[in-house]
Amino acid sequence: MKTLDDWLSHLEALHATPIDMGLARVRRVSDAMGLAPTFPVITVGGTNGKGSVCAMLSTMLVRAGYRVGTYTSPHIMRYNERVAIDLEPASDAAIVESFAAIDAARGDTTLTYFEFGTLAAMKAFCDARVDVAVMEVGLGGRLDAVNVFEPDVSVVVSVDIDHQSYLGDTREAIGFEKAGIFRAGKPAICADPNPPASLIDHARAIGADLKCIGSDFGFSRMDNQWSFWMDGHHRHALPFPALRGAYQLSNASAALAVLDCLKLRLPVGQGAVKRGLLEVDWPGRFQVLPGRPQVVLDVGHNPHAVRAMVDSLRRLPFAQNRVAVFSMLSDKDVDAVVELAKDDFDVWYVGGLDMPRGQTGEAIAARLAEHGIAKVKVFDTVEDAWQAALSGAGENDRLTVFGSFHTVAAVLAARQAAR
């Protein structure tokens, strides 16, 4: 296998199931490789918002002069997005080198695609001699591959219902899984305003230093700026994050709480914080594109995320026609998402996703009809739905693309191809 694409195709077929919860196999290979980071590790979990927190943290740390490794998932356009060093995607060569090292060390131990990727990211960060690694949990926390590495600070950004077949179907069950990234005697940040008792109880049971938004840290919003507070001190006159969405101040506060916990090892000045907030870039998270008609891209694919998206849409200026470009995977809670969003769009353009767990445009249109949505235009693909929506839009209309990472990726690819 010579190319990154060769490796990725190989990894997809290597393990019997795409998701196999548990740390034993990953730990065995990690130990065989001697992967023991000497730099601080920040582990970020949560149902939604974890990628935004990772992006803000990494940008502020880079602007403070640190060498930063960032591991996130899934990617939107290219696999390399998952592994970044100083905000730049790792090269194909660096990732291939890491994959080859893992393959040589694993013996007859099989790993999933995500587990391979997690070990590869940490090896790349060790090889690059980063000052700090920011690691986003893939699924849950307790049994996620990222949890094989010992965090210096852990963050749970939010707790809501998603991935029920793996994590449970209540906030209490899911909260316990996410709290599995906490460690005894180490700071544990929770940015959910209403954390499940299971999360709080687990933190107390293991002796983690739990800090909750609203009681231990928080923010105050003003017209043109905001301030952050934690343990009796403040950061005043902060600019609003470049990431759009009403919920991003909560995410930014979680990132600043992490920096506060690491201030003796990784001090970050006010200038770096301000630059990081202003310059952070995280595509597909309530991303408002320049130009007309207005286009909003949002990878939200569960009720919690779509509720936040709708709240942010309502804060935008008036749009003459509110157009949805929409598709979702079949294992997501399509009905709850549609019910939340149905009053905020005048017409829906839906297309199929041709992939495992994908649905046809007709199947999605049938779900919309069950919720009383009559103005629906159906297409074979998301790309076709996007092109039709764009060609029919006036300059005062707004097109919102949402429902899945794959939906946003299809539209971004179509936009690139049209340039």
UniProtKB/TrEMBL annotation:
Monomer. The lineage of its organism: Bacteria, Pseudomonadati, Pseudomonadota, Betaproteobacteria, Neisseriales. Keywords: ATP-binding, Folate biosynthesis, Ligase, Magnesium, Metal-binding, Nucleotide-binding. This is Dihydrofolate synthase/folylpolyglutamate synthase. Its EC number is 6.3.2.12, 6.3.2.17. The keyword Magnesium applies. Functions in two distinct reactions of the de novo folate biosynthetic pathway. Catalyzes the addition of a glutamate residue to dihydropteroate (7,8-dihydropteroate or H2Pte) to form dihydrofolate (7,8-dihydrofolate monoglutamate or H2Pte-Glu). Also catalyzes successive additions of L-glutamate to tetrahydrofolate or 10-formyltetrahydrofolate or 5,10-methylenetetrahydrofolate, leading to folylpolyglutamate derivatives. GO terms for molecular function: ATP binding; dihydrofolate synthase activity; metal ion binding; tetrahydrofolylpolyglutamate synthase activity. Its cofactor is Mg(2+). It catalyses: 10-formyltetrahydrofolyl-(gamma-L-Glu)(n) + L-glutamate + ATP = 10-formyltetrahydrofolyl-(gamma-L-Glu)(n+1) + ADP + phosphate + H(+); 7,8-dihydropteroate + L-glutamate + ATP = 7,8-dihydrofolate + ADP + phosphate + H(+); (6R)-5,10-methylenetetrahydrofolyl-(gamma-L-Glu)(n) + L-glutamate + ATP = (6R)-5,10-methylenetetrahydrofolyl-(gamma-L-Glu)(n+1) + ADP + phosphate + H(+); (6S)-5,6,7,8-tetrahydrofolyl-(gamma-L-Glu)(n) + L-glutamate + ATP = (6S)-5,6,7,8-tetrahydrofolyl-(gamma-L-Glu)(n+1) + ADP + phosphate + H(+). GO terms for biological process: folic acid biosynthetic process; tetrahydrofolate biosynthetic process. Pathway: Cofactor biosynthesis; tetrahydrofolylpolyglutamate biosynthesis; Cofactor biosynthesis; tetrahydrofolate biosynthesis; 7,8-dihydrofolate from 2-amino-4-hydroxy-6-hydroxymethyl-7,8-dihydropteridine diphosphate and 4-aminobenzoate: step 2/2. One of its GO terms (cellular component) is cytoplasm. Residues 44-216 form the Mur ligase central domain. Belongs to the folylpolyglutamate synthase family. Residues 284-405 form the Mur ligase C-terminal domain.
